[in-house]
Protein 1
Amino acid sequence: MTDQSASAAPDLILHSGLVTTLDRANPAADAIAITDGVFTAVGNGRDIMPLAGPATKVIDLKGKRVLPGLIDNHLHIIRGGLNFNMELRWDGVRSLSDAMSMLKRQVDLTPAPQWVRVVGGFTEHQFAEKRLPTIEELNAVAPDTPVFLLHLYDRALLNGAALRAVGYDRDTPNPPGGEIVKDAKGNPIGLLLAKPNAGILYATLAKGPKLPFDYQVNSTRHFMRELNRLGVTGAIDAGGGFQNYPEDYAVIQKLHDENLLTIRLAYNLFTQKPKGEKDDFLNWTKTSKYKQGDDYFRHNGAGEMLVFSAADFEDFRQPRPDMGPEMEGELEEVVRILAENRWPWRLHATYDETISRALDVFERVNQDIPLEGLNWFFDHAETISDQSIDRIAALGGGIAVQHRMAYQGEYFVERYGMGAAEATPPIARMLDKGVKTSAGTDATRVASYNPWVSLAWMITGRTVGGLRITPQHNCLDRETALRMWTENVTWFSNEEGRKGHIAVGQLADLVVPDKDFFACAESEISDITADLTVVGGNVVWGAGDFAKFDEAAPPPAMPDWSPVRTFGGYAAWGEPEGAGAPALARKMAASCGCANSCGVHGHDHATAWSSKLPISDLKSFWGALGCACWAV
């Protein structure tokens, strides 16, 4: 299909690819033309290649799969960007041994008075050891450098230096809904627990040093770059604790004004003041306009926090919290303000008990102020009931799900049983009932920002720790899962028809994954990265054969001790020695091309040969134990 009105030669043509457009009128193609940031031709290379002019950039896709750019329906990208360069990411690390090697390396690089922070995005279940480090282990690798380790939103581990830095001692009281664990003598041991309120966790994190403004700009660019590396081209920012508007939006606004955004961003405003929520939204609805902005940076309404009395924290290690009796009254005051001003909203809600009470409020408001046409929705909805799904559908709302169960599934099963986990959340039923439903991550703390982990979870029903919690009949096929990350998300930002497909007239956002999403093994999906990512017709990431087209790389991560310089992002460890060495050794063993797989060591022959044993002939020794490495 071609836009006949496009008389100018395309800026970019991509050809010889396997293009999955998700456009039902034109589902497949092998070539694409892009002009002024919009798809202007999608079809056959024989028809599209002659459109090229002298200035047209032409990229040979070499038979690779092409998908619409991925859009995260719930990402804390603004807050995450401000801090990305300071964080050591354990996302995707497969053993605690690797993780601790990385930590030790970063401790050695980090100058006083800075902290080493591992801020979520991982679970102990992803590690081969199936555990977190002990506080003693943290103290051993970092006796003097503060270390703060956030595990999901259930706990934080602080070494002795971090405890001293934050000033917690025997006289520090427990905050509401949280616990500073102390020993028999009343001294803090370095363990903070959400019970279930995570306020103690992010309030403690907020005590650490912050990056100066220019470094925050650099940090946000690197976070966007990391998302582009994984094929993400758009996101809806859900606000977040300690993310104040407009102060903490200055960095992202500067990047937008300087045309440096490589992620399209819609943002929701999140109240920061318990008992002052109504005043926040009265002020914001007067000073901000819904949809203000452009295709790269635009206002998307309110949430995910509307009132603190409705926040049911999702720590499945703790019993389900009951919301107080004031919830309905406070929520109704805010929702009426939003409905009167025609602002959509999103509401964090984990449990059906919270969702059903919120729906009582929404239905009451709807009697006076029709909600029709407002793209409001619930976030998360892990335990939502069929009845609540039907009520949402009747009111014209939606449900934005995230892959939190991929990281917390084991804890949910431990508390509620495997049967309860089989449809948590019940995505297939939501889709069957016709409710607007889309997918995202809720990164960067309670889960990783990697979209392919989310896609793998929806398709396989497995946690990142390998536990199968969703039976096949509740899993999604690959195309449906992909639509959850593309076209379905556009309703949640009121951009239907503008993006989400590779189709003439839509914004030119696409990804070329390094593995064929539709042909690779299910076990490989979560390991996918992008070979090429395009946003608005501009190459924002290129690797391998496409690296030469990549002109969007930001300056090196600042400060010079940033973990991003050493380790990169999700499973992209850049340090060849020391940190990450066990993972790299396993990767090398996995790529061994020999015909002999040892029953003891697999293909990790070098480990067997180089083991420090008091013998003269290592190969004979291992062979005597049944090891076949000697035969290589």
Note: The first strand starts at residue 12 and ends at 20.
Protein 2
Amino acid sequence: MKINEITKVLQPLGGRMIDAEADIKYLLTDSREMLIEPQATLFFAILTEHRDGAAFIQELIQKGVKNFVFSTHSKHKEELKSCFSANLFEVENVIDSLQALAAYKRSLYPDLPVIAITGSNGKTIVKEWLYQLLKEDFIITRSPKSYNSQIGVPLSVWQIDDNTQLGIFEAGISQLGEMAKLERIIRPTMGVVTYIGSEHGENFESIEQKRQEKMLLFSNCKVIIEEPTHQNIRTCAAVLRQLGYEEEQINRMLLLKTHETVLEVDLQALNRNVQYFRSKLKPETKLVCMVKAFAYGAGHVEVSKSLQQSRGADYFAVAVADEAAELRQSGVELPIIVMDPELTALKTIIENNAEPNISSFALLQDFMQAVSQAGLENYPIHIKIDSGMHRLGFESADIEKLLKILNSQHLVRVSSAFSHLATADEACWDEFTKQQIEYFSICSKQLQAGLPYKILRHILNSAGIERFAQYQYDMCRLGIGMYGFSAVGEKLENVCTLRTTILSVKTVRAGESIGYGRHTFLNEDRQIAVVPIGYADGFDRRLGNYGGEVIVRQKRCPVVGNVCMDLAMIDVTDTDAQVGDEAIIFGDKLPIEELATKLGTITYEILTSISRRVKRIYLN
């Protein structure tokens, strides 16, 4: 869309237009997002109580962006007068302007069928399932991830173009008056209602008031679908029927769909958990967010991009160089520490501007050689101190030799010195933890005293932040705590929910056995369901033969028979379970901690064991 057409919609109060023919393809509200075509991007500098997007306009101009919308109330308004190379549009309210532009874009396609989805839970899952079910028959424009807010919806609808044959958008609200705005942007022809409950209801007097506000999305809809059981798969079936699919075709499509097992990752909950840990720290203390091992199974790219966008992290840390490369390729710009650098991957670390953990003299020499070959100087590194865990790191006796090497060259520069606590979450070992901290303090002070520049120091992990915040030094490392696990019993938010769907339900007679090896025999007739999750997905074999449970229709159902590679069997006799019903492996009502206790392991192992073949769905 040409910029002169856009200005007719925005009706700016002032500003400057130097190129009326600029063609805008992309809208941007976060300066940290990766730019595809900077000159074809229009940045909306949103002004809030705590942040002014106009502060990043100069930075974006340096990156090639030439088109900006800013608030007339911005404190940076005068500074922008010197931006002679950009189109600048001054408006009363930036979000209103963003919404107006998206509404105008939607109006250009009056005959486009659009499905709008709202509810308290299930919006993103239903949207993604509909997309998967319909993508072979339609060219679909849909909400990215969980873009369902006053900002997310217009960014989603803007993506409609001449090729779009069907739109699928989700819409969420947090207070009265918001849904009417979203309705004007989406203009749905079909409405879909998922479960509406008490979640996010703090600004509503009752669930009924919230429901009435949500239903405003469908003011001009020809069809509204609300499946009575609010089962996601049945909601999708109802939409397919409305679109004219035959019942046999729907059954075939849904049979393929129900083979899907998904890990739902709530990024809002993750960010709120991060803020809990930040509340334990001084404002100036930096935070390293650990996203190694595929971000503990949650997906390192999406988790990192969310934390970068929310400014929840100052650094990221990964295990190996390939993880750092993937983050860089996805647009992550924050510093990245590689905790376990491999000798064969030092070049990859440098190529991706990552920073290695140096834990031995041999690794230090190898990395300095790699930096020299790359023609660089003062490359940032992080020095590991072995304070008592006796895994990797320099000891006190090594510091003098280490300083001689560091001060005799200009290839590398120490960014931080750090160590690992072995038992910060176990009160019975608090004396040992304090010994570790004291040892680290001595070594890191010795290192700092011998260097002509300031370094950061950090030793606290998630449990350490909660239990030993007085030793936070300059930086802390947050890992498992992001996912809702507290060492002091604090009620944090669940982030990861593993869901699957029932493939079949059959009656198995008394005396018959279930599964491989005939380890489960039935004493009476039982209803046995099959779910498409197995040990290849991370569902541990030890959960079979009544070792574990899953939740179906709000009831716990035991796992029977041996867990197979791709399937598991559950006893659903005490429910009215049907094919297509959801089965929850872990989540709010079946905590990962409980699963870990049954298996005699830790929450880390449960999360990191979820196979990458399990699809991740992200809720913003």
Note: The mean pLDDT is 93.
Protein 3
Amino acid sequence: MTTARSTESLVAEAHGLSGEWGDVVYVVRLSPSPAFAYVSTSIEDLVGVSADSHVSDPDLASRLVGAIDLGDLTHPATDGPQSLLLPWPTKQGRLVWLRHLCRLVVEDDDARVLLGAARDVSEEVARDAALTSALGTYRLLAENASDVLLLIRADGLVDWVSPSVLALTGWGASSLLGRQPWDLIHPEDREAAVAILAEATVSDETLAPILLRLLVAGDRYAWVSAGGRQVDLTDGGRRLVVSLRMVDDLVQAREAAENDRARLQGSLDSLLDPYVLLVPVRNQVGAIVDFAHAEVNDAACVDIGVNREELLDSTVMTVSSPESGRAFVSMLAQVMDYGEPLRREDQPYRTSDAMSTSRFDLRAVRAGGALSLTWRDVSERHKAHEVLTATKNRFQQMAEESSDVVMTIPGREVLWVSPSIGDTMGWTTEDWMGRHVDDYVHPDDRAWFAQAGMAVRRGEDQVVRIRMRTRAEAYHWVEAHARPYTENAGQQDRALVSFRLVDSEVAAEVELERRARNDELTGLLNRKELFDRLERVNSERRVGGNCLAVLFCDIDDFKAVNDRSGHASGDALLRTVAERIRACVRRADLVGRFGGDEIVVVLDSVHDVDESVEVADKIRQAV
């Protein structure tokens, strides 16, 4: 207890509370009713209401006192000042959050006085609220993402795993907690995975995704893509966050495609003639005096008799005799200057170290600022003319059927296109020359193709899949490879584009995606796809009383049908039932095969149970 004190004394004590704490200092006498005896003038800067108005308005004091539990201020454990977070109304009607440091003084006549200092912490409150919201959002995203997320402690044990692990691997989240994930990795992938993830534990860099095989339910291994990085948690600890994504179907499809491509490439390599890409060497007045080797294949190295490095470091003149070299350079210069493809049969040619003259069939085509040259040694043609002619025709046909289309585009107009455009798309080279390549691209793919074109102009190589129009007004899927082409002077002024038909690959990928989503027997959604879509539909916000209904259907005595008539009849029955159920519902509704003879129907936007029962009766009658 203290004796009655003057307001000035109480104000001085309140200022003593503030120190560096308070933006505002106040004294509130609580008897007979709450009223401000003093408020520092800084209150007006915070809330727009003057100190005099606070002193003269008892409602403001009552509002402050009503928000404070005065019993806590007199508790023995809180004899000192108590810190409180309270709102304070502004003149505009909004609330400013203030951190108060309060003390309750009881005088001899039992009159109580509240002393306080407060500072504005509105921004801190807003940041804390945003952080809390963000943390909740991130956790919600992690728990509902299709990818699996794991938190791994420094000792290698799993600390947390997202619920999606069940759908991905068949393992429950609880079964992985407290164990090392390495046990689930294929033995052949384990050493590399442990080494890379161990490196991630001592680095703040994001781990580049790696492919590895993971043990899933059913004692089998499936391919997953794994990535991760170290993160600092709010509790001060560090965890390795690892993300897993199922890529089993993708890896298998890629392996199948790579095997097909490897077989095709091996066949072509066994048939390829020598090939070189030549870049002209010019003198001071711009005349071509030689050609440098820019690209060569193995057959060319074998035929000329030097290794790849030596051939790339040489010119036509250095590997030819002087007489043959000058004639050959002059002939090739004509192709570069005038653009007419070169076709020579039985062309005589002598290398720099040859004692005799060989004869070759030559093919040369200008490719932008370079020359594409291939040849075949036909010195022994007269010994087996008929055999060689038949072989040549077969090889020529195979080359033409498998040749990619090549074109040069300086801007958007086609400057040059290879003759294979006729076999591939039905066009002649004249149909394309000087035309915008966009004229032949499917309208839906033009924006994507334009983006790739801008990337090429920035100096980047691009690979895109687009649909291109044939002369018959049909569209083929093609895989286009585009790269910037730089002239010998170092100026980039065009793009070199090649493309090949990939209709079969696109169709295979579409079919693969369809099989991943649909039941192969009935064509309905498979179980995983049904659950994924059901989860998405269920998470959507519903208005106007719209509800979601789930119908579970099965076929009575279905086993008896299989036993009596065989599985082929049972399969036919399932397909028929699936078609009839699908015909009974709306396009927006979901129908999926749960397993066996069990079919699930999800009705979206129904208003009541009666409407759902009506659809169920319709299905029952149709089946």
Note: Residues 391-403 have pLDDT under 50 and may be disordered.
Protein 4
Amino acid sequence: MQRNGFLTGVRGEMWVAFTGSIALLAAGLVALVLGGRRRVAGGIYFAVALVSVALLIAWWVANEFTGRGMTPGFLFHLFYGVEGAGVAEYRGMILGGTLVIAGATAVLGWSCLSVPQRAEQRRGLVAGAFVLLAGSVAVNPGVADLKRLLWPREAGEDFFGYYRPPVLEATAEVHPNFVFIFAESFERTYFDETIFPGLVNELRELEKESVSFTELDSPEGTGFTMGGLVANLCGIPLISPAHPNSMSGMDEFLAGARAWTDGLREAGYHLAFYGGAHAHFGGKEKFLKTHGFAEVAGFSELHPRVSDPAYLNNWGLMDDTLLELAYARFEELSRDRRRFGLFVLTIDTHHPDGYHSRSEADRPYGDGGNSMLSAVTMSDRLIAKFVRKIRASEWGTNTVIAIASDHLAMENVASDLLRRGERRNLFMVLDPRVKEGRWVERPGATFDVGATFLPFLGFRSPVGLGRDLLNPAVSDEWRMTRQSAETLRAWRRDLLEFWEFPRLRRDVVFRMEGETVAIDGRRFRAPVLVELDEVWRTKLRFEFDATWDVRLAEQATRLEEGTRFLLIAKKEDVRALTAVEAIDAEWVAVIGIAGRGASARPLADGTQISKEKIEATLARVGER
């Protein structure tokens, strides 16, 4: 099977920009050398060119994952980290990217800094070199994507004119149990018989008995698993702070956003989540527990229960194993006679190749030549079997079942075929009270899933930016405006507020056990860099599993001059910021003002630093 090559997915205008940027950079480098560059000019060219090359490589890596260059999902995992991810399929790409960066550094360093200088400088060529370099940066697709994501154009729409937190209103006396299946990357496009004849047979049969929503798009910030979960449950895209940051240090995940699952918990539902991958990946466990889930079981929790511990994929459990465990939990919850909702997230259809559960592996798609399509047809049978088993059980008449893709498929070995169709998400609801299926063709987005699903449970409410697709009062024009990329980018600041960084009012307490820092009682993982504004609102930065390894002390030196900060870190990690040799402690607190100075003090278990002490230290630092 052919794997994704270096330029797979780099097409059209972006391919021209990618190759054009490289060509302009190389031409500029030749002009610089022939022009007899001087040390200062060579140093400047080296620094700018290296950053440009790094962005080109970053864009290529992002494109291999997303097929659309740098997306909010790529930025999220860049800042949050990828601990727990199955990255074995991408080892060649990671190695290749590392080698290209190393090679580019060597070539640029030799050309810009080591080549002997000519006696006479040809200023025209040197000037031309920098013009070509500027052109290379201007057409660099990585630069364009970062500009688009981090500095969006203003939109004329008020975020809070669209956003409504879910407050559930009961519309019926009966509130059934439910099972909600998120099928990894299992988009509706796979149902297209003109492109994939005979690929999806079992779910198509079930769809005839369901209410199926056929026009759901994936707005920006929702095209990856965590983004899809946030969109489906909270009705908003997942936007993370745009600095070297790992949000895993937060005590809660999007605490300021409200999910429809929060409302169900308040209504007495026991909410459980089963997934074969590590629950902590991408902050999944923290997000779910922040938003109403009493039970979250991932690989670490489920693996000890399986009969064959070696039967795994790169992410964790195979889907036939997962669904067997999930059905056992469904039976237990049903017998308990509490209202419940069981969420299941599959993995076998994960890009780039998919995985083949052995219970279905002897029945591939066609000749078995496309691994992903075989994974899809096997997943079709596994999910349908799971659904039918629930419906045939003694509890089936009181169980509503939803099947949805978490997001559109990322770049995989079937992507060329997928691009022939109209890309839409899968969302169907099987309600035992609905005897005849129907197809709903209103345009919408994954934001609308929660608000549309709640009426099947006897409730109604808007959910964030989402509205009930069966409600004719909401216009299609309204929906298209709120889910446009331009509008969502302009709402970035409003969306970041949902992370709810604390405001310092009393004190900061350090605990050695667990290496935590409590700000007015809210616990965060150390090390942590806390920015403090004039009214003591905070912005938190962490290290942990971030893709790059930028120490927080180094980040503190890059803060805007005059920014007040508090850094809790190990002694050896803060030397770039202030002198700590005289301090006899493993952990230290550094209080300072960017560009003016800082003061360090030792930390022991239970050390408490009051707001007044921090304020006094900042005053002394400011007087220097």
Note: Residues 39-66 form the longest helix (28 residues).
